[in-house]
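Posted in: Structural Biology > Protein-Ligand Complexes

Title: Requesting predicted complex, flavin-adenine dinucleotide in pocket

I'd be grateful if someone could produce the 3D structure tokens for the following input. Sequence and ligand are given below.
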Amino acid sequence: MIRDMFEKNSSLSFEVFPPKKDDEFENCYKVLDSLATLNPDFISVTYGAGGSRSKKTVEIASYIKNNLKIDAMAHMTCVGSTQDDILSVAGALAEAGIDHVLALRGDKPALMSQEQFDKRIFDHATDLIHFLNKKTNLNISASCYPEKHPEAISMDSDIAFMKMKQDMGAKMFISQLFFDNADFYRFVERTQRAGITAPIVAGIMPITSAKQIGTTVSLSGSSVPKQLADIFAKYADDKDALRAAGIDYAINQILDLKKCGMGHIHIYCMNKPKMTEEICQAIN
Ligand code: FAD
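-- Reply #1 --
Done. Output follows.
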């Protein structure tokens, strides 16, 4: 069970995304079969912006749980959802035997107008958690942001909402990706001072291509330290060397986290089993 992993002071989990097209499921299952051989404590499955593709999230989480016999955590966003939408996904998850969700607000989907966003039914992840607590038996975890959420007015307010999520029953927090461990250590210290005792899982994203910096990383709002920027500059014209250096950077981040007693590691593995395997071999 996911909750049992906190009896240990370390864990390893992966994040995958569901296939975009219906004919890509077989390939996604192969990716998952490979990831399963690395014995993760759980695998989490992302949820399309605004609830699009929620059926695919359920289907992939179900494969992880029922075919691979590995704990699955389904992400769930509420930004574009009605209460009925949420109940329908929760019902499908229950039917598939998935009992743990990462409850999120989500970002404004591209096709949603600002007016629709402002009038959304669930304002924040806390509203989703409140609703899920009332209507379902799901175990709930939530997100956190070592460099604060981009919309947060301050780190203190962001951490106060995190504490609210813990008080509402959030079992653990998975962090946004970060590249400077010092940010994570400072953040964990502040959460402890604020009374947060739920485990905080460090989200690590290995950067293996220049494209990733332009897309995922800029969307996350995470800062890129000079050491990592220098790697991109140095290997801009050498894809293989950039990949190797990016993997190496992630390995060093994880080893340092473990050395400092932060043993709960969540790899944003981008559905890349080979890369994930290389990292797992190096950190174990
Ligand atoms: P919230 O907790 O609602 O926070 C958003 C902002 O509002 C913050 O600034 C916070 O300080 C503030 N706030 C929080 N609660 C309250 C409150 N009660 N009242 C007033 N202000 C409040 N996106 C997807 O679309 N699909 C995914 O699968 C997905 N997975 C993710 C996994 C992880 C580990 C993380 C860190 C992020 C993920 N995201 C995903 C992105 C996420 O949806 C965005 O970062 C989104 O902008 C915020 O979601 P949240 O749940 O953190 O929001």
